From TrEMBL:
Organism of provenance: Emiliania huxleyi (Coccolithophore)
Designated name of the protein: Uncharacterized protein
Superkingdom as given in the UniProt entry: Eukaryota
Length: 264
């Protein structure tokens, strides 16, 4: 699939707008003279708390900080990362994906307003950065990945009646993700990850997600975790609104068009 120049340009334009929004908000919230492109360690640490990983020292020691290899204080988590470089790297990777280029062009030409306010852009970039940092740390260390997975799974399953808020597609998706991670951990420990690993589970997981999104009555968000720290009890961060920029009909049309492209 050939990527049109207009699609690549749209993606570059969106990346530039995102960086500009992050810079503007950094100037507003940081002390005078503080670097505006360094990641906000305290924000990253609070996002780790939402994942119940802010006290998991083996993971904290592997995240980039001003003192690598030690357990960082909240302000130091990820502070060595340049946000401009991160957004640029993500944009370069996305530009190599024809489907993402198509999506960027459609969003940029849509009549639906898609501009993020500066605070939302700032939080969204940090949310993506945290997921990237954690993923890289887990990819580099099979035992750390197994420990973090066990911790996350334990948090969910220790919550009484954790399955009740889930619809059938959400429950199926959760169980297949758990099964895939268990197998993945086993193969990594044994050093014999098959070349076709995930060739059934991944398409099935994507199908579950599409069917859940198409469901006319989505289930309420589950409240996992100890009392007082349940995600459902918090008002969602403004950055999360970035995931809901399109009204549902427009979102469904875009999803259908992209899925049709993939299937062709």
């Amino acid at each position: 699939m050939v990527v049109a120049a207009s699609s690549a340009a749209a993606l570059h334009r969106m990346s530039s707008q995102l960086v500009a929004a992050v810079e503007r908000h950094s100037v507003r919230v940081r002390p005078a003279g503080a670097p505006i492109h360094a990641a906000d360690g305290e924000l990253l640490f609070s996002l780790l708390g939402e994942l119940r990983l802010d006290s998991h020292e083996p993971l904290l020691r592997e995240l980039p900080s001003v003192a690598p290899g030690t357990t960082p204080c909240p302000a130091d988590v990820g502070a060595a990362v340049d946000l401009r470089a991160f957004v640029g790297a993500v944009g370069a990777s996305a530009a190599a994906n024809p489907l993402l280029c198509i999506l960027a062009e459609r969003l940029s030409s849509s009549a639906v307003p898609s501009e993020l306010d500066d605070e939302s852009a700032y939080q969204l970039v940090h949310h993506c950065l945290l997921l990237d940092l954690v993923t890289r740390a887990l990819a580099a260390d099979p035992e750390l990945a197994a420990a973090v997975y066990a911790r996350a799974r334990g948090t969910v399953h220790a919550t009484e009646g954790w399955w009740r808020p889930l619809g059938i597609f959400e429950l199926a998706k959760l169980k297949t993700v758990e099964m895939t991670l268990e197998r993945f951990v086993e193969h990594r420990r044994a050093g014999n990850l098959p070349a076709n690993f995930g060739h059934i589970g991944l398409p099935f997981n994507i199908l579950e997600a599409v069917m859940q999104e198409a469901s006319p009555s989505p289930s309420p968000r589950p409240a996992w975790g100890p009392p007082g720290r349940r995600a459902v009890a918090r008002r969602p961060r403004s950055g999360r609104r970035a995931l809901c920029l399109l009204p549902k009909p427009a979102l469904e049309r875009t999803r259908t068009q992209l899925c049709s492209t993939v299937l062709r």
